[in-house]
Specification:
Chain lengths: ~260, ~260
């Protein structure tokens, strides 16, 4: 039974960075990734705000560099989904779909998934006019019309942020009032670039290679409206692993979701 | 009177990164650096653990990329030393040697200075056989005997680096074991040019115009040994700005001193 010094769960930028540091510290380390190395970052076409890349870098390219770097220091990577964690005699037991692993310490760097709306066109245009993070991508929507979906703090914050870039921001919310903090609501109402569409849902997204049209439906009148847009946003995220994360912080940190 | 949204004090990796993010967030930002852009990082010949550079990157090269990136987003950089901070009517006033600046917010990213040992001869021979940076000065110590003071990552890294130039490198450490990363310790132990002097301190440095003699004391046996050396190094640091930093954390982080 091999007991590692450290097992890292998740092969995104956070996990690979942990791997680089742990291998340089000569810890016996294993990184476990259930899908492909990279995580959400590989869906990002251009990252402009990772320091050290003046011309920007694609998510795929950046993650390849990180993986190469980690492997230079000898990091081993296994493909497996961890379903359960337990601790026996001070040793962590990680139960996967096929194998069981043991380690003295664990770093969970399994990232987040954005919660999808599940509407037509959403998968197709992800990264092509649809994004899930204003801080990351707002600059790409300069002088354009943008739809933000939601009525909570995140929707209002990101909607407000987008007004620095976009010509017009529509906040589409399925209820008849916002549920964001009052201070945010006040700012939203005071911003002439924002138009609120209450009792509305985003019905589908259309286009050829990129988003060209969005269809919004009023759920009370059943009326549909179409317009030419190039972006929409869903602010919610859920953990990317199925294991217990009750003690984890959301990794909206330098190496987490918000690198872009 | 121009009031900035944000003034960043310090043009190292932390300050430039803050500049990239603030400019992308459309904040009216000014970065102020008192010396050259980069700070201590420019003294680092090879950075192996900054994610995204599998072959390593020199400090100068990395900082040039970051500066270029920040300037692409329009960051303005002023050369000035800030001597005093005050706050009037919720606006920060920054008093420099020549100019005064005003800002709604401030990020202090002013880095660190090497901490002196405070021993006899240290001030007198700084730059005359005493230096604080191997990458900068190692070439001056070709075919000589060198003392490195400390037992952490920096002491080991710089000791190892010096073996490329010096005939012999003594690492003088006041404790009975190193606290550097294991990978560095292994390299140090394997290097025949390095001799470790545990439980020892550098007592004083002597000479006329240049360092001629160093006295090392064993703190357990109280025994003193003198030898002819021409260099010593202290790995500790203190804040690089004279302004109030009581609420700052030491920036021994990714973007601080410990990038190596």
């Amino acid at each position: 039974m091999r007991i590692y010094d450290l097992i890292i769960i998740g092969g995104g930028p956070a996990g690979l960075t942990a791997g680089i540091y742990s291998m340089r510290a000569r810890l016996d380390t294993l990184l476990i990734e259930k899908m492909v190395i990279g995580g959400q970052i590989i869906t990002t076409e251009k990252i402009e705000n990772y320091p050290g890349f003046p011309d920007g870098v694609s998510g795929v390219s950046l993650i390849q560099k990180m993986e190469e770097q980690a492997k230079i220091f000898g990091l081993n990577i296994e493909s497996e989904e961890i379903k359960q964690l337990s601790k026996e005699n001070n040793i962590f037991k990680l139960t996967g779909n096929q194998n069981t692993f043991f380690s003295k310490t664990i770093i969970i760097a399994s990232g987040n998934y954005p919660v999808k709306l599940g509407i037509q066109g959403e998968e197709k245009f992800r990264g092509r006019g649809i994004s899930y993070c204003a801080t990351c991508d707002a600059l790409f929507y300069k002088n354009k019309k943008v739809i933000v979906v939601g009525g909570g703090d995140a929707a209002c914050e990101e909607g407000l942020y987008l007004t620095k870039f976009a010509d017009k921001v529509y906040i589409v919310h399925r209820r008849d009032k916002l549920r964001a903090a009052k201070v945010l609501q006040e700012r939203v109402f005071a911003n002439s670039k924002i138009e609120l569409l209450f009792d509305c849902v985003l019905e589908r997204i259309e286009g050829t290679d990129f988003v060209e049209k969005a269809v919004i439906k009023n759920i009370k009148t059943k009326e549909e409206k179409a317009g030419n847009f190039c972006r929409r946003r869903c602010s919610k995220e859920k953990p990317a692993s199925g294991i217990d994360r009750s003690r984890r912080r959301s990794n909206r940190s330098l190496y987490g979701r918000k690198i872009y």
